[in-house]
Amino acid sequence: MRGLRAGVAAVLAGVLAGCGGEEGPQAAADYGEALFQDARLSSSEYNKFSCATCHVTTAEVPAGRIDSGHTLYNVAARPSWWGGDETQLLDAVNFCYVNFMRGVTKLGAEEPRSRALYEYLSRISPDAQAPALPFTVVKDIQDVPRGDATRGEAVYRAACQNCHGATHTGEGRLTDLASVLPEVTRDYDRLFPGIPHAQVVIEKVRHGPFFGVGGNMPLYSTEALSDADLGALLMYLGL
Ligand code: HEC
Ligand code: HEC
């Protein structure tokens, strides 16, 4: 009995001495990594996006991925986010959470989930001097020169396919809410009379849900998707 008590006391002393303190942030970061990859972070039954749907976390972006969001490698070290519009990391995260993931209420600063995400984002941010990243939004929509359809197919696979599924069928799409491309444009003469179909698609890609467009698809800055790649994509889609 005495031996057991002494053992328990020794374990407790170890915890108080800092073992637990070391494990705390580590366990929180692991939890944060799980949250990062889980669409259920948002309580909306309509949401199918996790943070990992739109952001890689590696220093180099893997071949075959074109994401609307920057890599989050070093994100916690950046001095500002969203092209300088956000100066608090949690606000930068909540912008995505509310606008893209249909999170109804923002993640609160004191919530364990926020702390866990913070610990995870800190763990993937080794360079304290990491600069803010550029984020250039195309405000006035203009047509872009069409490019090479083979390149366009690669762009579609890297940028659109995960959410929209295969062209013409939507097979494998992440959510039924993502329209079948390019067939959805057949309705555009009725919905947007007199406006070229490509123009509507360019506006969606460049503005996402913003500038009065609506929805929850992310927007693509020119850093995320160049006009050249957008022009190749339109050629591939026959627009
Ligand atoms: C549907 C796509 C999408 C989802 C889902 C998403 N984001 Fe984003 N995120 C973006 C886009 C687009 C931007 C703006 C471009 C950029 O700055 O990376 C952005 C920007 C950010 C930024 C600012 C990066 C910077 O340096 O400017 C942070 C931080 C961020 N997201 C974190 C998250 C986290 C954490 C989650 C999950 C809770 C998440 N995002 C979910 C698309 C998304
Ligand atoms: C993160 C998931 C996601 C990605 C990536 C994505 N989309 Fe979407 N997209 C959606 C969802 C969901 C909708 C329907 C809701 C909305 O309108 O925002 C949509 C809607 C659209 C629409 C409007 C369809 C209509 O109803 O008129 C177009 C056009 C479109 N996407 C094109 C693209 C193209 C082109 C790409 C690749 C450059 C792309 N999307 C990438 C999720 C995505």
Automatic annotation (TrEMBL):
Pfam families: Cytochrome_CBB3 (PF13442). The keyword Transmembrane does not apply. It comes from the Bacteria. Residues 147-239 form the Cytochrome c domain. Keywords: Heme, Iron, Metal-binding. GO terms for molecular function: electron transfer activity; heme binding; metal ion binding. SUPFAM superfamilies: Cytochrome c (SSF46626). This is Cytochrome C oxidase Cbb3. It comes from Corallococcus exiguus. The lineage of its organism: Bacteria, Pseudomonadati, Myxococcota, Myxococcia, Myxococcales.
